[in-house]
Write a structure and sequence with these properties.
The protein is α+β, with helices and mostly antiparallel strands. It has 14 helices and twelve strands. It has a domain of about 100 residues: Enolase-like, domain 1 (2-Layer Sandwich). Strands 4-5-8-6-7 form a five-stranded antiparallel β-sheet. Strands 9-10-11-12 form a four-stranded antiparallel β-sheet, sandwiched between helices. The protein has a three-stranded parallel β-sheet with strand order 1-3-2, covered by helices on one side. Helix 5 runs antiparallel to helix 9. The termini are far apart. One of its GO terms (molecular function) is oxidoreductase activity.
């Protein structure tokens, strides 16, 4: 790890101003991902701006749903009674993430910004288009067991590693951003992460001088009846092989609205909009869920070692829907 300077910001303007003046600097809250990458020399920043004193906390019920401050810790959000009761998929996704120690440190904003666990990205002995654009993507023909089957390109097939982001995407979350001029904008989380295309080094729509302020989630019947399923190699402290966040509003045995997003199968948290539309008006049965799951993986492009994900994620989807429809 290279030497770096360290400063503390107490307001959003101080934080974004420091970032604007030095675009190679980085914000730090929990640091659970950032410091790992700096130790690996994957990222090097001449300055870290500590934003823990910026007033971006709070978990509150609003007139139209839920608001989570960007500096709330994952553990606090996952255990919050409002989140547990009204948005269970978010709580489940958070509490299935990482370890208790990491959840106690990691912030919501930082979690949305975490970078891929692709081994080629994290090992500087290998070329990687995310680290060094134009250098190549050895994952295409190398060890791609944990990588994406949806949304990839010739430049990159790295998966987005998040759990919480999958649940948030499924439940129509919106990210509130603020820049160095104090101007705020709202971005649907569905659009926050970018597909790799030919520029895999750019992973989100966040501008250099912008900071995540909060996340909002609208209240809905399908949010109250939501669930997150995570399939992994071991029962704890492991990233997902596949995951599914689902929500259902069922009345009289028929589905009025449905939500479905998948994790660890896409280069970004993957919303299955076509599958959701297909479920509306259908009976809440295994046959309906199987059909939706098959639609959700249309267009998948698996590589040699991750073909199993096509079948595995469909089973996770069906299981998640069945558990909330029972």
């Amino acid at each position: 790890m290279n030497n770096f300077s360290y400063t503390t910001a107490t307001t959003a303007k101080e934080a974004t101003g420091a970032r604007k003046n030095s675009v190679q600097s980085a914000f730090i809250a929990g640091g659970t991902t950032l410091l790992d990458l700096m130790k690996l020399n994957v990222e090097q920043h001449p300055q870290l701006v500590d934003i823990n004193m910026v007033p971006f906390k709070g978990i509150s019920e609003t007139t139209d749903g839920l608001r989570i401050g960007a500096l709330e810790r994952m553990s606090d959000v996952g255990e919050n009674l409002l989140v547990v009761q009204q948005f269970p998929a978010i709580s489940e996704a958070l509490l299935l993430s990482a370890s208790p120690q990491l959840r106690n440190m990691a912030s919501i904003g930082g979690n949305l910004m975490q970078r891929t666990r692709c081994s080629y990205f994290r090992d500087t002995a290998f070329p990687c288009n995310k680290r060094n654009p134009g250098s190549g993507c050895p994952a295409q023909t190398g060890d791609n067991r944990g990588l994406a089957i949806l949304g990839g390109s010739a430049a990159c097939i790295a998966t987005n590693p998040g759990d919480m982001a999958v649940a948030l995407v499924a439940l129509d979350a919106v990210v509130l951003l603020e820049n160095s001029k104090g101007k705020q904008r709202r971005v649907p989380l569905l659009d926050f992460h970018l597909l790799p295309g030919t520029t895999p080094q750019r992973e989100t729509v966040l501008e250099p001088d912008e900071l995540i302020v909060a996340v909002t989630v609208p209240a809905a019947a399908h949010a109250r009846k939501s669930h997150y399923v995570k399939v992994r190699d071991r029962a704890s402290y492991a990233f997902a092989l596949v995951s599914a966040a689902v929500g259902l509003d069922v009345q009289g045995g028929q589905i009025r609205s449905a939500r479905l997003a998948m994790g660890s199968v896409g280069t970004k948290p993957w919303r299955a909009l076509e599958a959701e539309k297909l479920l509306v008006g259908k009976p809440a049965t295994e046959a309906s869920f199987q059909l939706a799951a098959a639609v959700a993986v249309r267009g998948a492009s698996p590589r040699e070692h991750n073909r199993f994900k096509v079948d595995m994620v469909q089973k996770a989807i069906v299981r998640a829907f069945q558990e909330i429809a029972a």
